[in-house]
Structure to design on (705 residues):
């Protein structure tokens, strides 16, 4: 029971991070109809800049600058490429982001080389205990920060003029444009927000219990893909639920891996994808996604 | 474009009804002549070229097969799939297991059926097709981008299986792939020793011909498939599912069947990959491979068989060529000397090429080739006007199409 609770806590904190990344996917999709495959390298970019800078300018400034760099990279991608392709087929847009991703990822991996960079989190690697249930402090702070960010995001999405503009253009781009909502600005802002969320997630993902900044951080972002998809690509609430679901499932599979040994070592990394396939089998547009209707 | 006129009768030429008749007749003998010349060059190459180029050539032939298959799925039927690496893996592993010998390798106990390699190849292709068929009901239900991400799952699950199922796959370190053999003739360095015109025909030379035959077969099959009824059905279905089903196209059925065909292509490409490398390892079949294949068809031109061939040549040969001529190309060199490693340089180039192609020339290399030939064809005419078939052979109705459409009803 203790183990179960501890795994549940770990799963929720991991899931909150997945939810942050998945929210990024979802708002980019809503604002510019792009499924962004650049997210993995954006995440790695955030982690890399934070780790590199914190040696020279200290931890907190490094975090801020790292977030800024990631957001800047996101907006450059949007302005230079995505914005020019408005109205292109979804598949071409996805492929173009893959192209950007290849470039960015190659450069980052080249810079990382074979050494492991560490982010000097001031909270260190200790764990936090309630009774006999333990959780690493990094993950606890991650959960709190993610919860605050997600709440702020949902409030902004609902009440701020940006949120209203964005929901309007996601609902019906043409009408929104006629009403004076600048589509380009909405889409650019969405990319910035997604970049910020990815960088924040990166900050915590490379801390305890995972070892430093390695190219595996990229694979983590890929595991947030199932989170976005199984919640429904156009549903922000879905991203939250999907993220938590994936996080918990992965933590459970990792915790009970001795019982799951017949499925092979490292099975937990595959679990998000299996969960996604199962959900998609029954609900092809995800749990909360808008069903596509065809009228003739 | 060139494909439309090579084998089709003159009446079916859709190079625009406005082209004057003399120009058409001049082309009609020029094209086959060029093709025959190309074939002769390809056949004679092993006599003159060193081993490196032949080995690269076989890898390229394998990539051509895989790229044609992926293009049928993504370019012609509009289903984005990132799972190509998975189907390649199925083909490669089945071949290695079925034709491989039993044996222990260190701690790992390897199984193997030891059947003739041709059986391994055929079963590998069939199993890859079966895997595609099993996945296709899910694929057919998912639209566009959902399918792209769902297919991502197959790659990761595939890697996991490759790492865990040691008896078959050799586990993390992989295992050696058996040499190919046809009726006692081994595609290896001996058995039998072979000299042609005084040139020793060793593994590389023999594999070159095998690759040429397989790639040619794959090419012709895809061309015929697309020119016939299934091709038209697929492209109608890609452009509008509703319109297609109103026209009597069984949309779900075609989606499933093209998934089957595409994954069989991938299976064959996987077998050729195993033969070309000589071994299989899980890390070869990661997401990166899927993305490389996607790069091939995008660079070549979505929906065009010739484009897939061009893209495959470009993407699969580039890193090898970079590696060989690292000291001649600026910026490329060893990691130590401050330059880019060959693989990195090639990856930068693919990434940039993908972005540039989608931004400026969505029809890819095939589109560029088409423009060049178009310039030759109509020197004084409308060069800037894009030919109607710029999105693949049949994406837009042209005057020559109606008879064929009539036959689908």
């Amino acid at each position: 029971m203790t183990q179960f609770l501890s795994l549940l806590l770990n799963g929720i904190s991991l899931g909150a991070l997945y939810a942050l990344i998945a929210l990024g996917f979802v708002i980019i999709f809503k604002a510019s109809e792009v499924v962004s495959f650049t997210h993995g390298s954006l995440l790695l970019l955030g982690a890399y800049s934070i780790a590199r800078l914190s040696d020279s300018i200290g931890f907190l400034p490094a975090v801020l600058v790292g977030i800024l760099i990631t957001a800047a990279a996101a907006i450059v991608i949007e302005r230079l490429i995505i914005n020019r392709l408005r109205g292109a087929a979804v598949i071409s847009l996805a492929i173009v982001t893959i192209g950007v991703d290849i470039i960015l990822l190659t450069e980052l991996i080249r810079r990382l080389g074979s050494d492991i960079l560490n982010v000097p989190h001031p909270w260190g690697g200790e764990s936090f205990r309630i009774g006999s249930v333990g959780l690493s402090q990094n993950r606890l702070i991650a959960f709190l920060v993610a919860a605050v960010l997600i709440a702020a995001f949902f409030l902004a999405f609902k009440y701020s003029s940006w949120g209203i503009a964005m929901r309007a253009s996601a609902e019906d781009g043409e009408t929104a444009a006629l009403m004076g909502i600048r589509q380009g600005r909405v889409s650019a802002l969405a990319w910035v927000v997604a970049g910020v969320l990815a960088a924040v997630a990166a900050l915590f993902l490379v801390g305890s219990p995972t070892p430093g900044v390695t190219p595996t951080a990229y694979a983590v972002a890929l595991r947030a893909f199932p989170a976005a998809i199984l919640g429904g690509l156009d549903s922000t609430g879905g991203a939250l639920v999907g993220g938590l679901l994936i996080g918990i499932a992965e933590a459970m599979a990792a915790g009970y891996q001795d019982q799951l040994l017949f499925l092979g070592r490292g099975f937990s990394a595959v679990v998000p994808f299996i969960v996604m396939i199962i959900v998609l089998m029954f609900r092809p547009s995800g749990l909360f996604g808008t069903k596509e209707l065809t009228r003739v | 474009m060139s494909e439309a006129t090579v084998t089709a009768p003159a009446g079916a030429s859709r190079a625009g009804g406005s082209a004057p008749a003399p120009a058409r007749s001049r082309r009609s003998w020029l094209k086959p002549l060029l093709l025959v010349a190309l074939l002769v060059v390809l056949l004679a190459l092993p006599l003159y070229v060193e081993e490196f180029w032949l080995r690269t050539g076989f890898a390229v032939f394998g990539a051509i097969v895989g790229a044609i298959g992926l293009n049928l799925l993504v370019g012609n039927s509009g289903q984005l799939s990132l799972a190509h690496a998975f189907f390649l893996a199925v083909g490669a592993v089945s071949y290695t297991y079925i034709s491989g010998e039993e044996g222990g390798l260190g701690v790992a106990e390897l199984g193997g059926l030891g059947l003739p390699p041709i059986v391994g190849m055929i079963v590998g292709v069939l199993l890859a097709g079966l895997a595609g068929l099993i996945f296709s009901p899910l694929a057919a239900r998912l639209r566009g981008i959902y399918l792209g991400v769902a297919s991502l799952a197959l790659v990761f699950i595939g890697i996991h299986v490759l790492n865990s199922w040691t008896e078959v796959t050799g586990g993390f370190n992989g295992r050696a792939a058996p040499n190919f053999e046809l009726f006692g003739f081994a595609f290896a360095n001996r058995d039998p020793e072979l000299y042609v015109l005084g040139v020793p025909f060793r593994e590389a030379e023999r594999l070159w011909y095998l690759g040429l035959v397989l790639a040619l077969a794959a090419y012709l099959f895809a061309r015929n498939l697309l020119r016939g009824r299934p091709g038209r059905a697929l492209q109608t279905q890609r452009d509008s599912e509703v319109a297609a089903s109103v026209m009597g196209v069984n949309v779900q059925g075609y989606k499933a069947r093209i998934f089957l065909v595409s994954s069989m292509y991938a299976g064959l490409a996987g077998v050729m990959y195993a033969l070309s490398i000589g071994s299989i390892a899980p890390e070869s079949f990661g997401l990166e491979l899927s993305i490389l294949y996607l790069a091939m068809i995008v660079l070549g031109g979505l929906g065009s068989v010739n484009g897939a061939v061009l893209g495959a040549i470009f993407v699969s040969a580039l890193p090898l060529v970079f590696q060989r001529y690292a000291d001649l190309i600026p910026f490329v060199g060893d990691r130590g000397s401050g330059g880019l490693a060959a693989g990195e340089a090639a990856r930068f180039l693919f990434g940039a090429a993908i972005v540039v192609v989608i931004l400026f020339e969505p029809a890819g290399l095939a589109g560029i080739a088409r423009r060049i030939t178009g310039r030759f064809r109509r020197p004084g005419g409308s060069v800037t006007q894009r030919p109607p078939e710029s999105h693949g052979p049949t994406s837009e109705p042209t005057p020559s199409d109606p008879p064929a459409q009539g036959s689908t009803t």
Remarks:
- Chain B has a mean pLDDT of 74.
- The interface with chain A takes residues 74, 78, 80, 138, 141-146, 148-150, 152-153, 156-157, 160-161, 163-165, 241-242, 246, 287, 291, 294-295, 298, 340-341, 344, 347-348, 350-355, 358-359, 362 of chain B (CB under 8 Å).
- The two ends of chain B are 27 Å apart (CA to CA).
- Chain B has 16 helices and eight strands.
